[in-house]
Amino acid sequence: MKNKRLIKIIFFISTISLFCFNLNAMDLTQKELNWIEKHPVIRIAPDPEFPPIEWFDENNNYKGITADFMKIIADALDIEFEVVQCQSWNEVLQKAKSREIDLLPAAAQTPNRAKYMLFSDPYLIFPGVIITTKSNKNLTSTDKLFNKKVGIVSGYVWHEFFNTDHPDIEIIGVANVVEGLRKVSINEIDAFIATLPIALYYIEQEGIPNLIVSGETEYETKLSIQTRKDWPILNSIMTKALKTIPLEKKKDIINNWIYLKPMTIFSNSTFWIIALSVFLLAVFIIMVIIIWNTSLKKQVKSKTKELTEDIARRIVVEEKLKESEQFLNSILNSVQDGVSVLKLDLTIRHVNEIMNQWYKESVPLEGKKCYKVYRNLDKHCKPCPTLRCLKSGKTEWNVVPGPPDSSVKWLELFSYPIIDSDSGEITGVVEFVRNITERKKIEEELVSGRERLKMLNQIIRHDLSNDFLVIKSAINIFKRTSDTTMFDEIGKRVKKSLKTIANYRKYESFIDSNQSLKEIEVNKLISDIIVQFPEVTFNIEGKCGVFADDALHSVFENLISNSIKHGDSTKIDIIITSENDICKIKFIDNGSGIPDKIKGKIFDEGFSYGKSAHTGIGLHIVKKTIESYDGVISLVDYEISGTTFVISLRKAYIIHTSE
Fold first, then answer.
1. Residues 103-112: b if buried by 16+ CB within 10 A, e if exposed
2. What pLDDT digit, counting tens, does each position of 221-273 carry?
């Protein structure tokens, strides 16, 4: 016996020596060695409920297969793994995303995790199995799970596989493996998906006798060491460390924790000795119970009746409570506005489906702070109608921004206090949230419309007042002198006033246009306009599309008309170019030009100059119209004679029919 022990010890020492030699020969680069020296402590976060792979025992000690692997790697690299204990796997992933931890000892490779983690080669591979009761043993493969309720631990890799490949299967999220197994056991769900050794461990641990492994999925959980994405050198070190662990050593570790072919208890002779003893003892006890049961039969019957009635009452109460809860959820989900129920500390207690849709990036919302998921803040909003509601005990209101990167830009938020009917104290708050984006848009358009109408009203009063004063003066002169030439002046002014009114009707039409911007091909629009001016020679170069509306026609027409009427132009060059996202349109005429002393005033409201004494209203509205498209119009100075206007607008990527 001693010789056998000595042989085992020698074999163990030689295996360890060989193993240490392999680790020393892992061929780390000088850069990797320097990095290890600067980072002697690496933070790791195991899955707290993943036995026998990894978990924490009743004394909060890190246990399992990966714990053994981490111990070997830590000794070989002479580093310390600081174990961060989390309450759930979701918390582990959150800390990995925020880089509160550096390494996950055993995690499946998924596209989502690849956004923030780097993977070693898988070193633990287990099949995903289907756990059912014996009555559902026909559920042997994934394709037989349709129209069934299938439980999966929230955040586990199986959840992502099934959501991606089998969206039609109804997935029921559970908090952990034990909860999933229990739900299957009582037929609350039809099947539960889990990793094989973990499922076997918990079935034995919890003593659930009516569960079986009915089949396998087409998926495997391939576990690897995952490291922070911003530390690629750590990934390289871990990959080399894993490769140096001998295959036999890996098998020893796994077999130490997982018994894939356990010896049946019925093959043990001790079992039968104990079973026989228990049987004889049971016979004696049964005889005693029968005698005792006769005397207590009436009492048991009475107590049983009371218990049955009590259970029946409880069932009725639970059914009513369940119906009430379902009814409340149906009402909340039928509301097309958001509803959010908060605790006194602003933790979300319940939301309806609209809130889940608006803030889907943060689902589940329950259990999180409202200011964190709704506004991405670390403390409460300022101002906060809900805090005011808790303080005043009355309904409070405010307009707040909508979800980020969403078409919902503005929300109207009403906070209603939840008051206990017995104590009269506030126990929470109901937030009622309504999308008012369209209403805000309409309000802004109304304000803008009022400003435009006010501007046009001021201009038309000014211009018509000037004409009426001239007419009045001409009438007074005629009365004193009987000069009939005054009638000509009066006629001119009346004609001018009528023309002004007609022009303002046209300006009002296009400046108050409520049509949404569309893609307009500039060269085509100009070609349609210039046919109205046969006496002028036009040269059009280039082409481009812009975002505008029908008022752009009046803008171009106004610039061409002014060039002919006030500058006596006979030739106009229109050059169209594009650069990046901007389209530029140059109007270059050979007219008399604009005097330097008035160049800074030509876009002013009501400015007039020259023999025609025009008011400048056209260029003022042209400027306002271009700015309404987020564009710019400017007058450019050149050494040559004539006038040059440049318009810059947002470019639209339209299909040119001329190409």
1. bbbbbbbbee
2. 889 999 999 999 999 999 999 999 998 988 899 888 875 444 444 444 444 56
CA–CA distance, 241 with 81 (Å, rounded to integer): 14
How far is CA 321 from its chain centroid? 34
User: Whole-angstrom Cα distance, residue 495 to residue 59?
Assistant: 100
11 vs 78: CA distance, rounded Å: 25
Residue 19, pLDDT score: 41
What is the distance between the alpha carbons of residues 592 and 612, in angstroms, rounded to a whole number? 14
Model pLDDT for residues 475-532, shown as the tens digit of each residue: 988 888 888 888 888 888 888 778 767 666 655 554 455 456 788 999 999 999 999 8
Q: What are phi and psi of 473, to 5 degrees?
A: -65, -40
- Residue 220's DSSP bridge partners are 127
| Torsions phi, psi for 104 (to 5 deg) | -105, 120
DSSP state of 312: H
- Among 197, 193, 22, CA closest to 125: 197
- CA distances to 371, 385, 423, 425, 505 from 388, rounded to whole Å, are 15, 5, 21, 15, 51
Both tokens assigned to 521: 């091909």
The tens digit of pLDDT for each residue in 35-45 reads 999 999 999 99
Tell me the one-letter amino acid at 261.
Answer: K
What 3-state DSSP class applies to 235?
helix
What are the start-end ranges of the H helices in 512-648? 522-530, 551-567, 617-628
Helix ranges (H only) for 413-484 are: 437-481
Counted residue by residue, the chain has a size of: 659
* 149-153 vs 170-174, strand pairing mode: parallel
* Tokens representing residue 476 in the block: 């007074």
DSSP state, residue 325: H
H helices, E strands: number in the chain: 18, 24
Centroid of chain to Cα 529: 47
The answer to whether the beta carbons of residues 640 and 494 sit under 8 Å apart is no
